[in-house]
Design goal:
Largest sheet: 5 strands, antiparallel
Distance between the termini: 52 Å
Low-confidence stretches: 1-8, 120-132
Number of strands: 12
Structural class: alpha+beta
Order of helices and strands: HHHEEHEEEHHHHEHEEHEEHHEE
CATH class of the largest domain: Alpha Beta
Number of helices: 12
CATH topology of the largest domain: Beta-Lactamase
CATH architecture of the largest domain: 2-Layer Sandwich
Shape: elongated
Oligomer: single chain
CATH superfamily of the largest domain: PAS domain
Radius of gyration: 56 Å
Number of domains: 3
Mean pLDDT: 75
Length: 536
């Protein structure tokens, strides 16, 4: 139950994590977009600054600059007119920049702003004050003055603001003076608007996501409500409470699931009651301890029942074998001697020359039947002998070849059956040779008799751990699963005149040797007996 609850909380955690990942992704994308937007804005402002200084340098008359450069009364008017030009340019650009004309005297190596627009000046420079270019700006102005590039733009960050600066030289000045039109565009306002739209976008996305998350959690709780009910029901059932019944308020897909759950609980209740009654009947529990409350107790009790049943089955089998052994001993002693006498007299009559052919055939038939009866008695006598013979060392190849030689003639005599022998190794084994030989001959004889129309019988030998595995395979009719389960039980045989005692003896002999017999069979395809014999 804890695992189920844990998995439910994990689903919620995964949902939250996915939402957070999506939000982080959107924020990162927004920041990247903001950076790209600013870079795009900078490019536009570069081009705009270039266009403005080129337009302004061609529009501003050089004569005004010449008049403004001398310290006379007329210079004041000239500078005022220059300021008008600059303010007009400022007005046309929506007041995003400040323009000023820098005058440079090559003889004096002196910079001076001779006119400026009404806009804010960068670096706190006021109109008419000496212009001292910054170390960063100076190289650009020097290039414009010396004609290396009459139009230069740059961008630099000063304090918290960003400025796009453009410079263009003004031709037509007299003497050693040089004039430069400088335009400084304040990009901070544009970037602030970009940031405003970015924050608005992120805020909208967050609101949408919060609303979506709330709606999703609501429907998730509504959807998982029946699942929680089911989990609670399973928990109570596992604790032994079988009176629980799940119901759904509205008709949903879980209604059928709840019905099946209720039916399962009802069947479990019946099963536990029957299990309790069975426990009392077999003596595993007393009447006072009859009730079984949970699955752990039920599983434990089932193990007890299986164990007690197997013990009872083994006891019944032992009692049956004991009874059969006693019966075998009694039959052998009480019937064998009279049958020997009858057989002796029949053999005497068989040697009489006065009997007709028909009478001799009758006597021969009686002798054959007595011989068959003696074979059955010998099988019963085998059940009455619990002790195995002594073990001895023998080479596996010699032992197996001897059995094959014995059965080869019988296979050819009974029907058109070909016997195959497969052994890829040889070693010395320490086994009960007579008993193992009896078992293999009996199984091979059964395989031969199962192939009435001929076929192939194969004896193959492998080594598995401390056991030698003798595999006897035939191509007969095969057996069903039910028939395989009954093999080795008393008086069960698939042969017309069989008693089932022979195979029963085989199972007993191998079990006494701490080995086992496995059977694999398929209808109309044949049967394989695998005899596992410890060889040390």
């Amino acid at each position: 139950m804890k695992n189920i609850k844990k998995s439910m909380s994990i689903k919620r955690k995964i949902l939250t994590l996915l939402v957070l990942l999506m939000l982080i992704t959107i924020i990162l994308i927004s920041i990247i977009g903001y950076k790209l937007m600013n870079a795009y804005t900078e490019d536009i402002l570069y081009e705009r600054g270039k266009g403005m200084v080129m337009f302004g340098s061609s529009m501003i008359p050089s004569r005004l600059i010449n008049e403004a450069s001398v310290n006379t009364d007329s210079s004041i008017g000239a500078r005022s007119k220059l300021k008008t030009y600059l303010n007009e340019m400022d007005k046309q650009s929506n007041h995003l920049f400040s323009g000023h004309i820098i005058l440079y005297n090559e003889n004096k190596k002196h910079y001076e702003i001779i006119s400026a627009s009404d806009g804010t000046q960068p670096n706190g420079i006021k109109e008419g004050s000496p212009f001292i270019p910054s170390k960063r700006t100076l190289p650009y102005i020097q290039k414009v003055i010396h004609g290396e590039n009459p139009q230069i733009t740059e961008i630099y960050k000063e304090s918290s603001n960003k400025w796009v600066n453009a410079y263009a030289g003004i031709d037509g000045l007299e003497g050693s003076n040089k004039a430069i039109l400088a335009v400084t565009i304040n990009a901070d306002e544009v970037f602030t608007k970009n940031l405003y739209w970015l924050l608005l976008f992120i805020g909208s996305i967050l609101i949408i996501f919060c609303m979506a998350y709330g709606v999703l959690c609501h429907y998730l709780n509504k959807l998982m409500g029946p699942v929680h009910k089911l989990i609670i029901g399973i928990t109570k059932v596992s604790q032994g409470e079988f009176n629980i019944k799940l119901t759904e308020d509205s008709s949903t897909e879980f209604e059928e699931l709840f019905e099946q759950f209720n039916y399962m609980v009802h069947q479990l209740h019946i099963l536990f009651e029957k299990l309790s009654i069975t426990s009392v009947q077999i003596g595993s529990k007393s009447n006072n301890e009859m009730l079984i409350n949970n699955f752990d107790e039920a599983i434990k009790e089932i193990d007890n029942i299986v164990y007690r049943t197997s013990i009872q089955k083994e006891l019944q089998q032992a009692e049956k074998m004991n009874a059969i052994g006693q019966l075998a001993a009694s039959v052998a002693h009480e019937i064998r001697n009279p049958m020997t006498v009858v057989k002796g007299f029949l053999q005497i009559f068989q040697n009489k020359s006065k009997l007709s052919e028909e009478e001799l055939s009758y006597i021969k038939l009686m002798v054959d039947e007595i011989n068959r009866a003696e074979g059955i008695i010998n099988d019963y006598l085998s059940l009455a002998k619990p002790d195995l013979g002594s073990k001895e060392y023998v080479m596996l190849s010699e032992f197996s070849a001897h059995i094959v030689d014995l059965m080869n003639g019988y296979a050819l005599m009974v029907s058109n059956i070909h016997l195959h022998f497969e052994l890829d190794f040889d070693l010395e084994i320490y086994i009960n040779t007579n008993e193992v030989k009896q078992v293999l001959i009996n199984i091979m004889k059964n395989g031969i008799e199962a192939m009435k129309d001929g076929g192939e019988l194969t004896l193959s030998i492998q080594k598995e751990g401390e056991c030698i595995v003798f595999s006897v395979s035939d191509t007969g009719n095969g057996m069903s699963e039910e028939q395989i389960k009954r093999l080795g039980t008393a008086f069960y045989s698939l042969k017309d005149k069989g008693t089932g005692i022979g195979l029963m003896v085989c199972y007993q002999v191998i079990e006494r040797m701490k080995g086992k017999i496995e059977v694999e069979s398929e209808k109309n395809k044949g049967t394989t007996f695998k005899v596992y014999v410890p060889f040390s």
